[in-house]
Write a structure and sequence with these properties.
With 210 residues, the protein is mainly α. It has two domains: 37 residues, no CATH class; 170 residues, Multidrug efflux transporter AcrB transmembrane fold (Up-down Bundle), CATH 1.20.1640. Helices cover 74% and strands 0% of the residues. Helix 2 packs antiparallel against helix 3, helix 3 packs antiparallel against helix 4 and helix 4 packs parallel to helix 6. The N and C termini lie far apart (76 Å).
Length: 210
């Protein structure tokens, strides 16, 4: 009979390590292997979806790394403040931040690219921000408030910690990076976006004047 036991590394307490030792001892008479979990599949899935959406090689890398950076900042802040992070917390935070807040980046980027086809870079970004910021702030505020309420109301310690972590750091940091960092990245990488996107032609002010 074949069994699979998935174990992963993380900030476990002593009881968790004792449990792992008991599992190893119980399986000592059998052939088995311990494999660590991975989040690479979600990362690659996001890359593929964004690549298909924008028909671009560069855009999925930019958006995914931006949100992943926000996740790393969230984990870093939690670690520096002395809060223990269980592996399940890391997984949930990553899924929520990557799944929910990357939509904000896609919205802003899509508006910018559509505007850029008919306008110069600064005007396109200005209008993209104007048309996107209300949606991002409204949806983002609801997300932050919902996770905060869960963190304050839940009597399960891990759920409460998870809610507070998402509301105070995770979602808020992602929103700030989308609104503060992504616009600069899009304008700096304007030519790269054009060259790495299929059938995407941007507006050129010099040609328009001629």
């Amino acid at each position: 009979m074949l069994y699979k036991v998935f174990l992963t590394t993380g900030n476990f307490d002593t009881a968790s390590y004792d449990t792992l030792d008991q599992i190893r001892e119980a399986l000592s008479g059998y052939e088995f292997s311990l494999n660590g979990g991975s989040v690479e599949s979600e990362f690659l899935t996001n890359l593929l979806i964004i690549a298909i959406t924008f028909k671009s090689v560069f855009m999925p890398v930019l958006l995914t790394l931006l949100i992943q950076g926000a996740i790393w900042v969230t984990m870093g802040i939690s670690t520096m403040t002395g809060n223990e992070i269980f592996f399940i917390c890391y997984m949930v935070v990553m899924c929520v931040q990557m799944g929910a807040t990357i939509d904000y980046g896609i919205l802003l980027t899509n508006n910018y690219i559509n505007n850029r086809k008919q306008q110069d870079m600064k005007t396109a970004m200005s209008q993209a921000m104007s048309s996107s910021i209300s949606t991002i702030l409204t949806s983002g505020s609801i997300l932050v408030l919902a996770t905060l309420i869960i963190g304050l109301v839940s009597k399960v310690s891990i759920v409460a910690d998870l809610g507070l972590l998402l509301s105070s750091c995770g979602c808020l940091i992602s929103i700030l990076m989308i609104l503060g960092v992504l616009p600069q990245c899009l304008m700096i990488c304007d030519r790269v976006i054009k060259k790495t996107s299929i059938k995407t032609k941007f507006y050129h002010e010099e040609k328009a004047q001629k």
